[in-house]
């Protein structure tokens, strides 16, 4: 997990974009990027587990493991769907509308208004992805990391109980 958490984005903006994409803004995008990457990794690992566990779904002894994986997948799928549609997509459209201007024809915005719209956009993304509140964001990240640990544990235990592919 530690290697993935160090992955980030680097961007060398040229004038005038370096006035918008400052090192602080890039750092915020990296926080968001790492969170979205973690969420997608967990989602994919849980789907892999489903494929493996579907072979032993009839084994009643292992049904609690199946149920737990299913609940974890529900949580991550719901969170990912919420973030994709209700946060990223919505906030991007709001940013585009703010840049175009309230009349929709554009041309009436100056640089400071665009910079302010971008700051509001990025702030809304971080807030609505639970990343601006350390306690809540930490809990969500911890849940996702527990899901990964579950997947890793089932990979290790699978051959021992005879259900791993």
Q: Can you give a write-up of this model?
A:
The radius of gyration is 21 Å and the shape is elongated. The model has no long low-confidence stretch (mean pLDDT 82). It has helices at residues 2-5, 23-53, 63-100, 111-128, 134-161. The two termini are 23 Å apart. The protein is mainly α and 165 residues long. Residues 4-154 form the Gamma tubulin complex component C-terminal domain. Pfam families: GCP_C_terminal. It is found in: Cytoplasm, Cytoskeleton, Microtubule organizing center. This is Gamma-tubulin complex component 4.
Please describe the structure with a list of short key phrases separated by commas or semicolons:
single chain; 165 residues; mainly alpha; 5 helices; cytoskeleton
Quickly describe the structure.
The chain is mostly helical. It contains five helices and no strands. Pfam families: GCP_C_terminal.
Number of helices: 5
Report the helical percentage: over 70%
SSE string, helix = H, strand = E? HHHHH
CATH superfamily: Gamma-tubulin complex, C-terminal domain
Q: What is the annotated CATH architecture? A: Up-down Bundle
The biggest sheet amounts to: none
Q: Please, how many domains?
A: 1
Structural class: mainly alpha
CATH class: Mainly Alpha
Write down how many β-strands occur, each being a DSSP E stretch of 2 or more residues: 0
Mean pLDDT: 82
CATH topology: the name is Four Helix Bundle (Hemerythrin (Met), subunit A)
Unreliable residue stretches: none
Shape assignment: elongated
InterPro entries: GCP, GCP_C, GCP_C_sf
Keywords: Cytoplasm, Cytoskeleton, Microtubule
Subcellular location: Cytoplasm, Cytoskeleton, Microtubule organizing center
Protein name: Gamma-tubulin complex component 4
């Amino acid at each position: 997990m530690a290697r993935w958490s160090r992955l980030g984005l680097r961007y060398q903006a040229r004038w005038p974009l370096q006035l918008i994409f400052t090192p602080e803004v890039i750092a915020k995008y990296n926080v968001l990027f790492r969170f979205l990457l973690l969420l997608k990794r967990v989602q994919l690992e849980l789907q892999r587990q489903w494929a493996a566990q579907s072979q032993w779904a009839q084994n009643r002894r292992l049904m609690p493991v199946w149920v737990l994986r299913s609940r974890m997948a529900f949580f991550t799928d719901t969170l990912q769907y919420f973030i994709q549609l209700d946060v990223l997509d919505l906030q991007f459209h709001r940013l585009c509308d703010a840049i175009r201007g309230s009349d929709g024809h554009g041309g009436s915005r100056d640089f400071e208004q665009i910079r302010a719209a971008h700051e509001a956009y990025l702030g809304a993304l971080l807030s609505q992805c639970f990343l601006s509140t350390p306690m809540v964001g930490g809990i969500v990240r911890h849940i996702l990391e527990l899901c990964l640990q579950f997947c890793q544990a089932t990979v290790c235990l699978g051959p021992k109980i005879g259900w791993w592919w």
